[in-house]
Known about the structure:
Helix content: 40-55%
Largest sheet: 6 strands, antiparallel
CATH architecture of the domain at 458-618: 2-Layer Sandwich
Strand order of the largest sheet: 7-6-11-10-9-8
CATH class of the domain at 458-618: Alpha Beta
Amino acid sequence: MSRLLIPRRRLPLTGLLLLLSSAMLWLIMNWAERTELARLQAAGSHRLEIYAGSLRNTVSRYSYLPRVLALNQEVRDLLAHPQDPTLQARANRYLETINQEAGSASLFVLDIDGTAIASSNWREAGSYIGNHYTFRPYYQQARVGRPGRFYGIGTTTGQAGYFLSLPIYQQRALIGIAVVKVSLDALEASWKAGAEQVLVADHQHIVFLATDTRLKMRALQPVPPAVQSVIRDSRQYTATHFPALPVHIDRPVDVNTAVWQLSDANGQTQQFLTQRLPLPEFDWQMLLLTDAASARRASHAALYAGVPTLAAIYFGLFAYLQRRRRIRDNLAAKALLEQANNVLEQKVADRTQDLQQINQALSDEIRVRQHAEAELHATQNELIQAAKLAVLGQMAAGITHELNQPLAAMRTLTDNAQTLLARQQSAAVQSNLNLIANLTDRMGRITSQLRSFARRGGDDARPVSLQASLSAALMLLDQRIRQQQVDIDMILPRDDYWVVFEPIKLEQVLINLLRNALDALQGRADPRIVIRTQVHETQITLMLQDNGPGIESNHLPRLFDPFFSTKRDHDSMGLGLSISLAIAHEFGAELTAGNLPEGGACFSLILQASPQKEATHA
């Protein structure tokens, strides 16, 4: 028994081992807990994006409604004559119908003084008509010409909702405001089916959506008196006092993640992994609270597994030391150590060779992919050039007609000039020569525009004059426009717009869209194409509308697919819109299609505005 006693000289070593064991157990527990938290964080990030996506989809589903109301003629007529009961009744029925079909909470129209003059709930006792909403931020934002966004409690109905507003203009003068109220109650109820807790707080850090109702109208941080005064003035919420969430932050994980201790109604605390996702488009933030009990269990499991493991390690170490006291064969120990070193060095060498082979394989794969991307880009450019030459071929008959007329005139003028020279009428000869020179200039402009369009476009984006590109496209299609007797209505500002694009490719996109509209107008008695623009900060939207039959609803999803064509003739390969979409994406633009409420199709080309100008057409 005396041999098992620890000698005095080994007491400091024993204490050090105990200290190291405690530190090792703590590290193992901490590692296990952090590993589980990392797993929960990865899963929570995906779930948080899903919740945020459902919120964005719910709001974006109704974002088109304010513009629909602003463009409706019945609404505009009522704003022009707000005291006309007949116009008000027609507008109320229109808003009621649109609200029922869209599934929004309510629709209403304000005059410039903030008074509701038409509403979808005009039949109900709590109708908005006659109420004043100048205190609402969505009115104040639209009053200065900006789209309004605001979440709050309805002052008339007492029901919460998200309000979207849009100013209505008549000849650049503000005449009213269209407002849409979207209910988020169904979305909030669907979130409750999940295992996590979801919170949404506004820019004042006040929770207004929550799967746990006791957390609503709570603040993530203290609300200053000035902010409370703003909330009262705008009547955003019925509450005026916003107590802090019953939360103790255990420790932060990163800038948007922390471990919370959340107290329930009985004072019991529960640990949650809290993840925050900013929603800058709403000026909100979304929080996901995931039960972190599994992280604590993982820490305890690591402790229960670590203690026996360390005990076994120390027992083995003790046995080894005891044995080492009896074995004094240093040469054998040295041989074993050298053998272990050789094995380790061999493993390191093998691993290094494997890593070199893997690195070489990755390099080969990168080169193959780069080559494939280069071939794909070259094929795409060849396809774009082929489509451009196909367009030139289709326009050849019209261009030939444009050239034959001045050629015939030049022949007649030349014969006349010879006769006049014989009669020595030099003044008349000079007049004929001037006419021939003018006809030559006209033919030169036609062939120059064709030569410019036929050459290959580059890949470098630069400032391009939008009006110059439109003029060039219209000039190439002038013969067909005059042949179909199409009325071109260009609603463009006096100042030129400059966009970031490649000039030749921009002209090709515009020609494809114009040809598509001309095809849709074949056989119409009053063909008309409207070209107009809209400016939104750093973007310029070019809209091309026609009064043709429009696009069938089952064709819209496939409209930009390669080789898809709605034309009955066999000359169309169905590549024009597909190539136009590819070119637009190449230069950071967007191309969309839809139908107008009054009939006809509308194509919208959203371009990046250029802050500077330079000459782009020779």
